[in-house]
Amino acid sequence: MHHLHREKLFSLLDDEESAIVYMKGAELMYRNDTDYEFPFRQESNFWYLTGVNEPDFHLVLDLKNQDYHLFAPKRDAQYAVWHGRVKTKDHLQDEYQPDHLHYESKLPQVLKDIDPDKIYCLNQEQSEFIEQFERELPIDLETLEDALTHCRVFKTGWELDQMREAARVNNIAHTAVLEALEPGKYEHEMKAVFDYHQIKNGLMQDAYNGIFAAGENSAILHYVENNREIKDGDLFLIDAGFECNGYSSDFTRTYPANGAFTDSQAEIYEAVLEAQKQVIEASEPDVKMEDLHILAARVMMQGLKDANIVKGSIDDIMEEDIFALFFPHGLGHFLGLDTHDVGGYPKGVERIDRPGIKFLRTRRTLQPGMVLTIEPGLYFVPALLEPALEDDTASKFLNASKLKEMMDLGGVRIEDNIIVTDDGYENMTDVPKERADIEQVMAG
Ligand code: GLY
Ligand code: MN
Ligand code: MN
């Protein structure tokens, strides 16, 4: 299906002049000077255009003829000894269907034959590589990345199917973790359960470092140690997903480790859940992501006010950025070949320089075909809240005694993955999130 992606790119680039796109695929990486090989993962733009998830390939797109040249590495017998059977040219042709398949040594000759007036490259490193062969030509580093980003934001039907499959398996793996969760186990045991179900279902590559966080670790946004014992009374936060053919899934759930939320945990959980549900219901074409972010923040602040943790009017709480003390990240991001996928800030759109919103990864207006996460959260981070209690302005909005009682609660985040459709959204996440459903599953 990757020919559709090339056609989208062709339609955006000028075919009047004799120009080419040149792109180099990813290479294998090793740990320092050892023979430990990192799992290979193709660079996302190269994967998008070719479907090739193997090292050491190159691509040339001839814009005038709309011809696709794929260059494969020539593997020798030693390669076969160490890495396995070498694919024949027929095999590669059949698998990737380029208009022209060459070995990489043919690159200079093909460039000479096309004789382009201009070369589009993604970055300096790739342009330096191609300049070995075409010293005199103008290289354009401005256009290609923006054009590819535009293509990647709006998913094709085939891309959506890969994302639905990644989500289907993620639903299974997350539910298995919920069923296995109990005090006395370790965070890494939950990761083992999760990875087992992903790999058993054929997904081999995690989309990002999974977070398996108990107690106060659940308030650490990028917690990756995953090595602490899960205690009775802890919240347990899991934020994890794998890729299907390169396309990510990225869900978060937060559970009571012992199967029943305490009253304080329930108050925070309900505030986050209510925000998440309201935002998802409001997701449809022409809605701005920053407006959804503010909606989520307001709903969660109302929840904290009802719980007597913050005080004052919601307008003032928002105006004074008090919400950023509890919700210090963005509401969500594009999802695709990268977990934090491209296209959140098109040229000319800048981040909003305000504490509660500057980490929002997209300011786009929702349109059909976009895929994004909706992931509000509330966290008790002493490094943020203790100074706020000493601050003249912020402390007026905080109930110090209640806040101090909550300081070791950790955090709650709930994250679903949605596709924006013509009249609303499709939610690909199907893992229990109502309190009663969670408690019922955990009760066995
Ligand atoms: N786990 C990365 C994210 O949710 O954005
Ligand atoms: Mn996540
Ligand atoms: Mn996310």
What does this structure look like?
The protein has helices at 2-12, 44-50, 77-83, 89-96, 107-114, 124-131, 144-153, 157-180, 187-200, 263-282, 289-306, 314-319, 323-326, 382-390, 392-395, 400-406, 435-442, and strands at 19-24, 58-62, 67-72, 100-103, 118-120, 139-140, 211-214, 235-240, 243-244, 247-248, 251-256, 371-374, 377-379, 411-413, 416-421, 424-427. With 444 residues, it is α+β, with helices and mostly antiparallel strands. The longest helix is centred in the middle third of the chain and has 24 residues, at 157-180. The structure holds glycine and manganese (II) ion (MN) (2 copies). Residues 250, 333, 373, 375, 415 line the site of one manganese (II) ion.
Summarize the structure.
The chain is of the alpha+beta class and 444 residues long.
